[in-house]
Automatic annotation (TrEMBL):
<protein>
    <recommendedName>
        <fullName>PRELI/MSF1 domain-containing protein</fullName>
    </recommendedName>
</protein>
<feature type="domain" description="PRELI/MSF1">
    <location>
        <begin position="7"/>
        <end position="190"/>
    </location>
</feature>
<dbReference type="InterPro" id="IPR006797">
    <property type="entry name" value="PRELI/MSF1_dom"/>
</dbReference>
<dbReference type="InterPro" id="IPR037365">
    <property type="entry name" value="Slowmo/Ups"/>
</dbReference>
<dbReference type="Pfam" id="PF04707">
    <property type="entry name" value="PRELI"/>
</dbReference>
<dbReference type="GO" id="GO:0005758">
    <property type="term" value="C:mitochondrial intermembrane space"/>
</dbReference>
Length: 195
């Protein structure tokens, strides 16, 4: 089949009213989190610190993706899509690589789906850096994603559904999840240390 499905590229930025160190600590300890009940598991595959102090981590995640399946079923495309991949799989798995450079004050995260990766590509890139106007008190998050499903003729529909469900809905929860960690876990740790 000819690939007529257009790749979707998604971008968003957010400014936190917290220092880079506070935001990165929260981002690295984001789960479990009430904003993301669908994250069922997270396992560290590898973690290392290079001679120049850069921390690199590789983690695997297990996620519930039933919302996408329900959406396809409601639109009447379950049978066609299920003939290509097994939609009865309850848990989708993803791989995440992070790099923290404390000297440059940079935190990069790159994630990609493992489940259904032959037919659907979901890649996300997050970058946390100090805000140029207030590098000690504010942090800028740049989010970008690439979604591709080459299956003609329903690839474009799948990309639209994933863009709406995964990035317009779920990715918007990311900054709120980090704020929750800062308000609850980091604040609790600080209070314990001072008492």
């Amino acid at each position: 089949h000819v690939n007529l499905a257009a790749m979707r590229v998604w971008e968003r930025s957010h400014v936190f009213e917290h220092s880079w160190e506070t935001v990165v600590e929260a981002a690295m300890n984001k789960y479990p989190n009430p904003m993301f009940n669908g994250v069922l598991s997270q396992d560290v595959v590898s973690r290392s610190v290079s001679e120049d102090g850069i921390l690199r981590t590789h983690r695997l995640f297990g996620l519930l993706f039933t919302g996408v399946v329900h959406r396809l079923t409601n639109l009447g495309f379950y049978r066609q899509f299920n003939s290509l991949i097994d939609l009865d799989v309850d848990v989708w798995y993803g791989s995440e690589h992070t790099m923290v450079d404390p000297r440059a004050r940079s935190y990069l995260l790159h994630s990609k789906n493992i489940t259904f990766s032959r037919g659907i590509t979901l890649e996300e890139r997050l970058e946390y850096k100090p805000h140029p106007d207030n590098p000690t008190g504010r942090t800028v998050l740049q989010q970008s994603a690439r979604i591709c499903c080459p299956w003609w003729p329903i690839g474009g529909l799948v990309e639209t559904i994933l863009e709406d469900f995964v990035y317009d809905r779920m990715a918007a929860k990311g900054p709120r999840a980090i704020e929750w960690v800062i308000a609850n876990r980091i604040a609790d740790t600080t209070a314990d240390a001072s008492s």
